[in-house]
Amino acid sequence: MLQCIFLLSDSGEVMLEKQLTGQRVDRSICAWFWEHTISQGDFPKLQPVIASPTHYLFQILREGITFLACTQVEMPPLMAIEFLCRVADVLSDYLGGLNEDLIKDNFVIVYELLDEMIDNGFPLTTEPNILREMIAPPNIVNKMLSVVTGNSSNMSETLPGATSSCIPWRTADPKYANNEVYVDLVEEMDAIVNRDGVLVKCEIYGEVQVNSHLSGVPDLTLSFANPSILDDVRFHPCVRFRPWESQQILSFVPPDGQFKLMSYRVRKLKSSPIYVKPQLTSDAGTCRVSVLVGIRNDPGKTIDSITVQFQLPPCILSADLTSNYGTVNILANKTCSWSIGRIPKDKAPAMSGTLVLETGLERLHVFPTFQVGFRIMGVALSGLQIDKLDLKNLPKPPYKGFRALTRAGEYEVRS
Q: What integer is the mean pLDDT of 275-288?
């Protein structure tokens, strides 16, 4: 049971406070949380659950906004974290994004949504299509009416039909002139390459994203050519578990609009599409840097949006870095960013230069870690392939579209 929810800006300011039960949580818990965060550096961002002297704290970070929930009783931590993720997704959907100004400009709607999403500390209504029927999203017309009439509430006086439906995630009886469904495979590659150039870790986190605009109550079946490679699968509530358990087929009645049907991991990949080879040598108070980038395994599609970033060590006084392709920028926080884009066919991109160490330091003892970014449209590097998508309960065949995208996640090259 959650007792309170706080929304904190990146500066630690409490933007919103929602008490959920009769036992009030003092706002001083936010000051304790922020002091704990500062004392631990960036590590608490990886800690979704923190035990304070008086409370259990659950947190997620979205677009610079910390969603913080508090309780004094033990509860399943995944339930609290999943609820905070739902709150963040609903607010982003309603407000068209997430930032401090949007939340402050729409306080009323945010509080109304929280009132409906949780009741006395327990999650209640979290389906976006039901919430949209109960609470009108913000728009210019609603804001003008609230100013003219003095009524700032966006609450509907009728109960949504989906609340009594066996498929509450779907809008009641939607109708479209053109029925369409699009399926996207979106994958992120997480990899670690050690200083010897050996691939220590390489795995894929992927999502099956669906954008459905289908009339009535369609029944869809999605199958893969090689589902045995998938690990740690998670499904949207619309997926029937028995067909997947017996035949590894996704059978579902989709929500209306865009949603995440499934997430998965593919572990122990043995290759990556590009290589990054950094070399650092230091003596006499300077450090020479050389970084080469190229294609290791051609995926058959264009690799673009290639970037290489690294944090200059604190002992570096100045840096002079240039590249034969792309642009190199050194930001105010001592982050060096090399934007390459696409790798040309006639030469391999290279960055080189000199770092000046602080006075009294002969050699560099702390070597940076290089963060690599890239994007590949039209291919899923995990090897996952969609076999077919069947649709039932539709008067005529709809248009079906399939796409794939792979991008870098936490891709690190150590020097």
A: 88
Beta strand 399-414 with 180-193: parallel, antiparallel or unpaired?
parallel
Among 332, 331, 415, 343, residue whose Cα is nearest residue 375: 343
What token pair was written down for 15? 């933007």
Start-to-end C-alpha separation, the chain: 46
Residue 44: the pLDDT is: 47
Residue range 321-338: mean pLDDT, rounded = 90
**Is the Cβ–Cβ distance between 262 and 235 less than 8 Å?**
yes
Asked if 164 and 383 touch (Cβ cutoff 8 Å), the reply is no
Q: What tokens does 56 get?
A: 């259990």
CA distance 185 to 260: 10
Question: Which pTM was predicted?
Answer: 0.78
Find all residues with CB under 8 Å of 91, minimum gap 6, and list them.
98, 103, 110, 113
The residues with which 371 forms a beta bridge, in sequence order, are 309, 412
What is each CA distance from 220 to 217, 234, 240, 388, 393, in whole angstroms? 10, 18, 11, 10, 9
Q: What is the DSSP letter of 121?
A: T
Cα three-residue angle 211-213-219, rounded to 5 degrees: 90
